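[audit] Reproducing an earlier prediction to check determinism. Same input, same settings, fresh worker. If the tokens differ from the archived copy the diff job will pick it up downstream; this log only records the rerun itself.
[audit] input (471 residues):
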Amino acid sequence: MVSVHVTTEVFPFDQSVDLCPDNDALNFTTIFLITFGSGPTLFSNKTPADFNFTTSHSQSFTFDVNDGMFAFVNEVPDLNNGWHGNASDYTTNDTDGYMFLVNMQGIDPQIFNYKIDDLHIGRLYEFSAYVANVVRKEKCLNKPNIRFEVRAINESGNVIAKKGTGDVPACYNMSWSKYDISFETTHSSVVLLMLSNVAEGSGNDLAIDDIELRVYSTNDLDDTSTTASSIFDCKNNDEDYCECSNDFIGLSCKIQSDDVCSKHDNNTYESLFFITFGSGSDRFYSKTASDFNFKTDLKKESWSNFKPGAYAFVNSVPSSLTVLWHDAAKDHTTNDTDGYMYLAGVGNVNDMIFNYNITNLCVGVDYEYSAYLTNVMRDIRWVSVTEPNIRFEVRAVHKKGDLIAQKSTGDIPVYQHMTWSKHGLSFVATSSSVVLLMISNVGGHPGNDLAIDDIQLRVSSANQTGFCYPG
């Protein structure tokens, strides 16, 4: 194990960034801060071992930084016009400073694995890093989405805390954002991890810098046991760009950013379908997914047999199976007494939760695909649970199933009271027939249970019906 005091270079804390709310930003001690050093050559000859971490990616010391590879570089290589060629690292006041450039491939490979001993049980720590998407905005490629995890070093590798970044935004000028996870450690020896949440390889390239672990002198924070914070906005010098800060993507944001990217209901535009799941007095609805014209990998089960990989339509959250759920919490739809919602006990990574085919869309027209989601688990400090993380996708309906748009929710947090949030994406139809998907980014239990309601596809243009029929 490495000593907790072995560091690369330690810099003063930037007081302009305060990611742990309600706390004195200076009230901490840095345990390690990895800045990757500096040097005049583009590629550093140092390895992860020099910085006391491991990675499942292979190292490159040349311009061939292909999928599944990484390099330590003092500027982004100008390999093609898809990357932010010549962009610099994050660390301040280090000329020719190196950064950790990763070309990710597949879901769940380890980007960063750092083992550390002699932590103080019960103390509050923050594990953080600065991250940037190295792919230029206009390329419209897959965005990186990484997961911070803290695990105990023991036989079972208990998860102490974890949180996803959500999609790291693409910008016209490369922009660094700080992501972190705060946790109260329950073990003196832990492993700090960063893992990929994205399966697609086209794009999914990022740079990482200033990886830090610090300890706070007090634990007087609000809801921080699995909190992640970040700065999402692109710094584009007044350039027009279509990245929406509210979890949507698509060219439509350039035209209708307020309406298409709204986190709230908007009835201005035509709805192509709106699934609320109906209402009724029976707690468990007899209807199946096919009654609402969608498919799922989950299996319809009775409550007595409800388990990971099962689903049901319920008019309130059941409690007889577990005391950890928000007992009797209601659906999202307004003005529907005893309204049903879609309860999903997600089983595995890449479980298909929702698959809906739709035809006769208008090519070139803007659409919004959305749903309200909530974590049905209660916030109980002494219980560590897997939080749902859902990927919205739009694919063309043909053999290749071209990906038109995708966006991940990030980890859907637990709350003291069940809280609904709108998630989704906007897209410009490039095919008249598409499939709308919701797919799980994570596996694992306990947890990974969510409710879904008010699934909607709507057109984002006031003068469009959204359908274009042949002939």
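[audit] rerun output stored. Observation attached for the diff report: The mean pLDDT is 80.
[audit] end
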